[in-house]
Amino acid sequence: MILSGERIGPTAHYTGYVWARNGLSHPELETREGRILFDSLEPVMLISTALGGPKLEAYLLPRHRAIDALLERAIGAGEVSQVIEVAAGLSPRGWRFAQRHADRIIYVEADLPGMAARKREALARMGSLSERHRVVEVDALEDEGPASLAAIAADLDHGDGLAIITEGLLGYLPTDAVRGLFRRFARTLSSFPVGVYISDLHLGGAVTPPVRAFRLGLSAFVRGRVYLHFADAAEAERELVAAGFGAARVRPAVEVAGERRGRGLANILEASITLPPEASAT
Predict the structure, then answer these.
(1) How far is CA 190 from each of CA 86, 149, 160, rounded to the nearest angstrom?
(2) Backbone torsions φ then ψ of 166, nearest 5 degrees
(3) Comparing C-alpha atoms, which of 8, 44, 29, 67 is closest to residue 218?
(4) How many Å apart are CA 7 and CA 122, to the nearest integer?
(5) Confidence (pLDDT) at 55
(6) Residues 6+ away with beta carbon under 8 Å from 122
(7) What is the pLDDT of residue 229?
(8) Is residue 8 within a helix (H) or strand (E), and if so which, with residue range?
(9) What integer pLDDT is reported at residue 204 of this predicted model?
(10) Whether 118 contacts 89, CB under 8 Å
(11) Which of 20, 19, 22, 1 is nearest to 10 (CA)?
């Protein structure tokens, strides 16, 4: 997630608590700071909903479940058996997928040093760490070097498919940095027989006053700017293809997750190096 030096940012604590309170996580990934943050923000969230605006929890859950659904589909279809989750934070996804799929997948959680150490210690207490579920340090903005994504991917089996996951990362980066990530991810995935990138994405178009207020509130909460990228889904898809992906699709998270809450906030991108069967048939 987001770090300031070696200090874990508030969003990591908050989202960790949201996953836990909704039955998606493990107690070791839930923090006292997260519970305090959640309780302290509840009055603000109630005011937001009373004024017709969104609630942070209703924004986060469809996003998380939508990414889960796309990753589950890719694994179930036999397209990928390896996952790198960049900026994994206190997300329980690696633990849940490692439990669910056991020896069918390799799951690598990657983050900056402070968070990586915290996550590694928690997973060790949970008994989840193994050769098939591990935590590594990464700097996603680096093109090369021991902490680059390319170096992490080099240790994987290049005869099997790979999925790269990011959640809650792109919104904290300016658009040029996001374009750089797209290129880096596409280049890394291109050395695997199937390469899939799944992430949430904030779009700049159709921002209503309640959504604008929510974004300002979120920026204050994370103590930094929250960026909107690309005017609409079509522009985002073109940027992904320009970065080196063979196909890309951007949809509302609630549509992917099959839910009705949060429309107009989180969107989910799914980009692949190789065309999926349904795309090649059309």
Answers:
(1) 17, 13, 12
(2) -130, 140
(3) 44
(4) 16
(5) 73
(6) 26, 28, 29, 90
(7) 87
(8) strand 7-8
(9) 77
(10) no
(11) 1
Residue-range domains of the chain with CATH: 3-280 (3.40.50.150)
Torsion angle of C-alpha atoms 146, 188, 163, 166, degrees rounded to 10: 70
In angstroms, what CA-CA distances link 96 with 23, 123, 128? 11, 11, 10
**What does DSSP assign to residue 172?**
G
- 238 in Cβ contact with 38 (< 8 Å): no
pLDDT the model gives residue 3? 37
| Positions of the chain with pLDDT under 70 | 1-9, 44, 48-54, 205-225, 260-264, 274-282
Element of type H or E holding 219: helix 209-222
SS3 135: strand
Which has the closest alpha carbon to 163: 77, 94, 79, 101? 79
Residue 168 gets the label, from left (phi > 0), alpha (psi -120 to 50) or beta, of left
Nearest Cα residue to 48 out of 168, 216, 201, 170 = 216
pLDDT for residue 46: 72
Q: What is the distance between the alpha carbons of residues 189 and 206, in angstroms, rounded to a whole number?
A: 32
For 179, the token pair is 């374009």
Vertex 253: Cα angle to 249 and 264 (nearest 5): 100
Element (DSSP H or E) covering residue 82: strand 82-86
Instruction: Give the number of other Cβ atoms within 10 Å of residue 88's Cβ.
Output: 28
135-193 per-position pLDDT tens digit: 999 999 999 999 999 999 999 999 999 999 999 999 889 999 999 999 999 999 999 99
Using CA atoms, how far apart are residues 222 and 161, in angstroms rounded to an integer?
34
- pLDDT value of residue 48: 64
